[in-house]
Design brief:
21 helices; mainly alpha; Growth Hormone, Chain: A; single chain; disordered C terminus
């Protein structure tokens, strides 16, 4: 095996482990909430902490690699990931579980961007397209298989093994990183904007905590205090950006219509889907009494629909244009969410199947089109800055989508029974998912919009 394929194997293995940890743990949430006696809004922090850790480390991974070496950072990240996975599996309290998930996310945030950069630098032209296809395949395979596998583990053992199951793969990734990655050091890049990174992370953490507290029945003043703190950190970060030459996230780039709209699309589709799927897992297991394995298997349909949509978008992107593809994706995705409003019992299984298929079609089309559109207008160093925004936004969308929908559901439970509260929550999610339709006119006509891509 040539060196570049060894690097690709390390990256793809790490990427697979990261995706599995996000989606496999989701199906175990109801069991974790029941055993550790926490609310559905609070247990979302098992996922939020992981994604917050990713967000915290992604912007500084390149600097760390330049400072300590690619092989050392890749190997250390997987060893730390393995240790955190072990301690998550052994956790007997909610706070310790959330803490080690944060550490696990930070470890994963080191490998993913660094491994991707190393791999894509070694594959150029048509060969890069092949690697991109493999990355897309992993991104579909992990969400398709891991929920059903995680459900089987929960049903036949316990939720602890959902975290322990990744240990063999993460240890293998650490071993391959040390054996296959060349021991070379690059010139350390300029010191990253650590102050900006802390302000950004504090903003996200405060907003997530606000929604979690408000939806879990805590006194309103606590949630309002977290909201005020988050807004204060956001204002401080905005002021910090004005006086910083290289901010960790250059907010000025969001004025670009394609990047700005693509960011919004990611909240409306993958972000909202994360919340809908997590809420549905609780509803299917706690209210309809489906097993964890059965409720996780619906992701197979989602992945199949997403694969078909991604292939179609790759073929028709230049012909139809981003605006039309976005419109189709938003409508399909919201129709799928709205179909869940008719689910009252296990006899409505065909409706659940239809809902996940439609959400997969819309999710695949929306994510693929956003990924292609977001960075079209950027070149040189601006491409890297825009890429940082895109990757951080992608992680934030998952956390905020889950926290917001669980907050709405828990608030509705104060006034409604479980089934009506679930129906109204997903209906509101479906309507919120259509909001970017109002902004599609920001995109240029198709011929002008895709001139850079065609060139």
């Amino acid at each position: 095996m040539t060196y570049r394929y060894k690097v690709a194997v390390v990256f793809l293995l790490g990427f697979f482990i990261d995706c599995v940890n996000i989606f496999m743990s989701a199906v175990a949430m109801p069991s974790i909430a029941a055993q550790l006696q926490v609310s559905s809004a609070a247990v979302a922090w098992v996922a939020n902490a992981y994604i917050l850790g990713l967000t915290l480390v992604i912007p500084i991974s390149t600097w760390l690699a330049g400072r300590f070496g690619n092989r050392q950072i890749l190997c250390a990240s997987m060893l730390l990931f393995s240790l955190a996975a072990l301690l998550c599996g052994l956790a007997d309290g909610f706070l310790s579980l959330v803490f080690w998930r944060l550490v696990q996310g930070m470890a994963g945030g080191l490998l993913i961007p660094l491994g991707q950069a190393l791999t894509f630098n070694l594959f150029q032209g048509a060969q890069r397209a092949r690697i991109s296809t493999l990355v897309m395949a992993v991104a579909l395979l992990a969400p398709a298989l891991s929920p059903a596998l995680g459900g089987a583990i929960v049903d036949h053992s316990s939720w602890h093994w959902v975290f322990l199951a990744s240990l063999p793969l993460s240890l293998l990734a650490a071993l391959l990183s040390w054996c296959w990655i060349k021991a070379e050091r690059n010139t350390p890049p300029p010191r990253p904007d650590l102050r900006g990174l802390l302000l950004l992370s504090a903003t996200l953490g405060s907003l997530l905590l606000c929604m979690s507290l408000y939806g879990s029945g805590y006194p309103p003043y606590q949630a309002l205090l977290c909201l005020a703190t988050g807004l204060l950190f956001a204002v401080l970060y905005r002021r910090h950006c004005r006086g910083c030459e290289q901010p960790i996230v250059d907010l000025q780039l969001l004025k670009n219509p394609r990047l700005g709209l693509s960011v919004g699309i990611y909240y409306a589709i993958p972000g909202i889907f994360t919340g809908v799927n997590l809420l549905s897992l609780f509803f299917l297991q706690d209210s309809l009494h489906l097993s964890a394995q059965h409720s996780g298997m619906f992701m197979l349909l989602y992945a199949a629909g997403a694969l078909l949509a991604m292939l179609a978008c790759g073929r028709y992107y230049n012909r139809l244009g981003a605006a039309r593809l976005f419109a189709i994706a938003l409508v399909l995705h919201s129709l799928g969410i709205a179909a869940l409003c008719g689910v009252d019992s296990t006899s409505d299984l065909p409706l659940i199947l239809l809902a996940y298929t439609l959400m997969g079609l819309g999710g695949g089309a929306g994510a693929n089109t956003a990924q292609t559109t977001a960075l079209l207008d950027f070149a040189g160093t601006d491409t890297h800055k825009a890429s940082v925004i895109w990757n951080i936004n992608r992680q934030m969308a998952f956390s905020l989508g889950a926290a917001l929908l669980l907050m709405i559901y828990n608030l509705l439970l104060r006034f409604l029974e479980v089934i009506p509260a679930y129906h109204l929550s997903v209906l509101l999610a479906a309507l919120a998912g259509l909001m970017p339709l109002l902004s599609l006119n920001r995109l240029n006509p198709p011929k002008d919009s895709h001139a850079p891509l065609d060139h």
